[in-house]
Amino acid sequence: PSHHPGVTLLSEPTLRTLRGRLLCPEQNNARFELVPDALIELDAHGLIQSVRAAPSDCRIPETHPGAVLLPGFIDTHIHFPQTRMLGSASGPLLQWLERSVFPEEARFAERAYAEQVAREFCDALIAQGTTCAAIFSSSHFDATDALFAELDRRGLRGLTGLTLMDRSAPAMLLQEPAAALEACSVLIDRWHGRDKNRLRFCVTPRFGLSCTPELLRGAARLAERHGLWIQTHLAENREELHATAAAFPASTDYLGVYEDHGLVGNHSLFAHCVWLSEGEWDRMARHDAVVAHCPDSNFFLNSGCMPLRQAIHRGIRVGLATDMGAGRTFSMRRVAASAYDAALILQAPVSPEALLWRATTGGAIALGLGAQVGRIAPGYEADLVALNVPAHVGPEGLFDALLFQHDAGPVRATYVRGQRLTPTHRSED
Ligand code: GUN
Ligand code: ZN
């Protein structure tokens, strides 16, 4: 039996050896080494002990025949309370927030509702092979506590925090700075660093427009005091840019709003970054700040295309992200396919292999987890995904098939620390 109640294990709790075709990411190049037949040995804690080619007389059966194993997907930006309104086509960003997002997020004031959706949310991550995510919760303490508890039950890796908002939304979603920061402190004590550091509290001001200067400064102090990551939205759409400039007349530009309140550094994660100026990109690089690239969301809300190749060339860490609810999928493969399209539109193509690397290893590095997850090497946590590959696909077509042939079947298996997870709480309605 599992020590995560409610999770069905399909194999021994401490699974010793996996055998199969492997995509082993390289650390510094956005590339994979293909190992046609490998053995991965795990220790009792779910850490990878060794990786080697299977000997010719190997008697261990292939774990997932026909599939390929790679590191679990890392979603660097996703919204838990938008699970049930995924795909709501109600306009560009600011209208979509008012019409679709805020009414749904208000339902998370009720703990039982949040608990139910937390189960659906974790099921959906597992079903798509995502083993780690940077997550926006709602603005409620209880909903965020319920999300942490569900991540913990499943053994998923997550950074999250309650979404900080004290203006420009329905009252149900707003909290005074002092109360919001106190709620954060309780959650930090309860969850930050839990499960051998797999759960982390992340300071999460929604964006400039939802926060007073006082709340932004309080958020920065909280992050500083506890050494926490900060996540927010930056330069997603032009209307938002103009509204932000009007709300913060003293700041030189959008990134400047966050700089002026102490929120920018090498533990700051900015979603979107579609409309940054050259000067802002320079400062992003200088701060060693991180980008969560959300191409599917950017298409759905007609926000624009983030210049991925430019950001990479500047040495900026960039992870891929669903941004689900504005993104229409939990699938990081689909997001990688959208990133491919967005790069084509900008006439700065990026290869499927590089995008798959960014959806896994690159995401781990972006979140400061490059020594724990995102690789298949000794000492790394065995957070892995097995993906179906059609039998006729040869090595030269492998990355194309993984990115673009979604019809070839669902994710075959998802592992966290060597334990296979299955979605167990299907929604009844
Ligand atoms: N900007 C502020 N809040 C949100 C959100 O929930 N989704 C997206 N895509 N952008 C935002
Ligand atoms: Zn978002």
UniProtKB/TrEMBL annotation:
Q: So which cofactors does this thing need?
A: Zn(2+)
Q: Which residues form the Amidohydrolase-related domain?
A: 68-419
One GO molecular function term of this record is: zinc ion binding
- List keywords of the entry alphabetically: Hydrolase, Metal-binding, Zinc
* Pathway noted in the entry: Purine metabolism; guanine degradation; xanthine from guanine: step 1/1
Give the cofactor binding note: Binds 1 zinc ion per subunit.
- Which GO CC terms are listed, alphabetically? cytosol
Name the Pfam families for this protein: Amidohydro_1 (PF01979)
UniProt enzyme class: hydrolase
Q: Which GO terms describe its biological process?
A: guanine catabolic process
Its EC number(s): 3.5.4.3
Q: Which reaction does it catalyse?
A: guanine + H2O + H(+) = xanthine + NH4(+)
NCBIfam families (UniProt xref): guan_deamin, PRK09228.1
| UniProt function note | Catalyzes the hydrolytic deamination of guanine, producing xanthine and ammonia.
For this chain, the family text in UniProt reads: Belongs to the metallo-dependent hydrolases superfamily. ATZ/TRZ family.
Query: What protein name applies here?
Result: Guanine deaminase
Q: What is the lineage of its organism?
A: Bacteria, Pseudomonadati, Myxococcota, Myxococcia, Myxococcales
